[in-house]
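Z., the sequence and structure:
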Amino acid sequence: MKANTLIIGYGNADRQDDGAGWHIVRNLAKRLGLSVPDDPGAAIEIDHELVDLIFDLQIYPELAETISQYKRVCFVDAHTSDIPEEISWIILSPEYEKSPLTHHMSPRTVLSIAKTVYKKVPEAILVSVRGFKFQFEREL
């Protein structure tokens, strides 16, 4: 049985607080009694009856097919001091967002792809945790 909810953590665990998504997904999996890789460079895909979990370095177009199969999706990432709250969350709607970086895709854009290609859009939120350090280290 597939869960109705998908949690997608993303970010670079080799850049300190940018890896918050990895740590959150990993801790959720542990609380559910599931094993996860110790290597932050390894992608995580875990199916569970309550919630499915994914971690990857970034959001990419192929996630549109995956998220179109869920009722709810929660994206988890780190944010900078531009957002003053320690923990922030916003409801997302599908919207194509241009990016100057060819390797960067926003959750709104992948929702837009799901709507356009698969004609399905889950309820979606973005939860972000304030980051303070983004140097090349694996520790938060």
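The chain has a mean pLDDT of 83. The first helix runs from residue 20 to 31.

Let me know what you think.
H.
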